[in-house]
Amino acid sequence: MLPSFELSQLALPAALIFSVAGLAAWRVTGSVLIALALASAKTAPFLIYFGLVFDGTYTYLDDWTYLERGAALDAAGVTPFNLLQHLPLLLAAGEGNHFLYYLVNAIAVGLFGDGYYAPVALNVVASVGVAWVATRLLVREGLCPPRWTSALFAFALLHPDILAWSTVLNGKDTLVLLMHVLLLTALSWQLRGRRLAALALAGAATAALLFLRFYVPLLFALALALSAATQIHQRGRLRMLLLGTALMGGLAAYFGPAVGEQALDAVRSDLVNPLTGFVRFVLTPIPLNTDDNYAFLDVPATLHWLLLPAVVLGVWRVWHHGTAFTRFLLAYTAVFTALYAIYGELQGPRHRLQLDFAWLTFQFVGMLGLPRLVDAWRHRRAARERPASSTAQQP
What is the pTM of this model? Predict the structure, then answer.
């Protein structure tokens, strides 16, 4: 059992979380009181967990490895401004190219100290970025009416699954989720004619992912090609198809055949039935039936299951929205889900976190559509009863 942390240790990271969340909430809602309430709701779980609850139960070997090697990088003087000078150290820390999250841990240690809470605090800040970018993206693409903007931001900021993972665990998946949302934003900009800005944003996010989780850009490119191929008759989709194909070719050339063969071998080594794999990926973990090390997911899992009808309705509404972006969003979700459905190692709840933008989109859009669905059902029921009532009143 590990001791929790003193308030003096948590004060600086908590202040950063509160400030970033409060500023973002104020920019979205325009209300100081709402901003303060949302910032408090975002900061309180971090303070309560690490100040009172933390005892090391919800930690894993990889998490401590990130922290220990990040502390070693910080002690060696590695910063974002001298990466090339310390590249051998970074490659050694990451045991290959996936060194970016070790650098994030080094930055966190330099800012807040070498406690487990330090990199987690940066994950919480990254989750605020997810909520901010996701809200702007969904409003811009017409999936959220402007009058619901504040509600969407609050939902994304305090989304149970994102809140749990980003507040408890020192893992890189929250940062990967942010890169997902940035790539989706870049596509939205591209579709709206902001090509240079889209290229710059997509390039930065892709570069980060190559040192974080390399297969994500490749699957994005595949989804781009697939979504364009299903709409080839529409204006501009041929360009998207060519772009997706070119991106896949370029990334495949960058990785080389050896990496491709290793990836295929890894998938073959843990290949599972896609139907059962899909169900497991979507429904894991079962609420109130988690292992002790994953008990912090009981509440998020319960809410995830309760919102499954809203997800189904949300997928249907996103499909009928019928824009190039929503078609891509569905193709992107299908491509990533297909990989996780056939590869057993990726079917745990941790890997679903990087798709939480899609989940929260379907959940929110579905919840917005529930009143309309209920009204439509009532109107149909009234329409069926009206002729019967009229017939009964005839002499």
Answer: 0.90
